[in-house]
Automatic annotation (TrEMBL):
InterPro entries, alphabetized: HAD-like_hydrolase_sf (IPR050155), HAD-like_sf (IPR036412), HAD_sf (IPR023214), PhnX-like (IPR022468)
Protein's GO biological process: DNA repair
UniProt entry keywords in alphabetical sequence: Hydrolase
GO MF terms held by the record: phosphoglycolate phosphatase activity
Top-level taxonomy: Bacteria, Bacillati, Actinomycetota, Actinomycetes, Kitasatosporales
Protein name per the record: Phosphonatase-like hydrolase
Alphabetized Pfam families for the sequence: Hydrolase
Record-linked SUPFAM superfamilies: HAD-like (SSF56784)
GO cellular component, one term: cytosol
Record flagged with keyword Acyltransferase: no
Cleaved signal peptide residues: none
Matching Gene3D superfamilies: HAD superfamily/HAD-like
Species of the source: Streptomyces mesophilus
């Protein structure tokens, strides 16, 4: 009976960054605008509006994948990605991001309960590091992952599975909890086999979108995640 209860513990928690634990105040759209302009997409044009809408619709996906879809050509996609990362990095350095309310406290509580916490992103490593530095978060969690660290970005399960393999924190994927603010986060969690896949309403997508993508829970914010995990474990007993 004891081992059965132990196996219900969600001892690996994989959290998204922008929109889930980090408030970036629409910086993705601003940085995209700068990157698109560099590639000759006229601000205010129908082409710009169409591309910006695609960026909104694919929030959470690996950014290089988004730019490949938008520009078709690999060289252009790489240039757009570099331009985006530079623009986003400059905005981050300008003090334009902050932890979402309750995020640091939630991570602290999860860790105090003996859980391993991993932060993931759809951004490149340079941007992820810029965010971690700006927030003073380099030592906050056990591991941070970007798409290049894992193979593919969301909606593939690679980052969640990389967290599972690299941390060795749990003996099965059913003992992973995943939380994010986009449909892509939910899909990656479901596809990894995670036991709990929580959508939060502080970012890109609304409750129906998160549920349609497979969310097992929808929470007002990541601040409610520790309680949701505790309730899941109590039910599993």
């Amino acid at each position: 009976m004891v081992s059965h209860m132990t196996n219900q513990h969600l001892d690996l928690v994989v959290l998204d960054m922008a929109g889930t634990t980090v408030a970036d105040g629409g910086l993705v759209e601003q940085a995209f605008g700068k990157a698109a302009e560099r590639l000759g997409v006229e601000p205010g044009s129908a082409d710009h509006a169409e591309k910006l809408q695609y960026v909104r619709d694919t929030m959470g996906e690996s950014k290089i994948t988004v730019f490949r879809a938008l520009f078709g050509d690999e060289e252009k996609a790489q240039l757009a990605n570099v331009s985006f990362e530079q623009a986003y990095g400059e905005l981050v350095d300008g003090g334009r991001i902050a932890p979402l309310p309750g995020a640091e406290e939630a991570i602290g509580r999860l860790k105090s309960e003996g859980r391993t916490v991993v932060l993931t992103t759809g951004f490149a490593r340079t941007t992820q590091d810029a965010i971690l530095t700006a927030l003073g978060w380099h030592d906050l969690v056990d591991l941070t992952l970007c798409p290049a660290d894992a193979g593919r970005g969301r909606p593939y399960p690679d980052m969640v599975l990389a967290a599972f393999l690299r941390t060795g924190a749990v003996d099965g994927v059913h003992r992973i909890a995943v939380a994010g603010d986009t449909a892509y986060d939910m899909l990656s969690g479901v596809r990894s086999g995670a036991g709990l896949v929580a959508g939060v309403l502080t970012g890109a997508h609304d409750e129906p979108t998160l549920k349609d993508a497979g969310a097992t829970h929808v929470l007002p914010s990541v601040a409610q995640l520790p309680d949701a995990i505790a309730a899941f474990e109590a039910m599993a007993r």
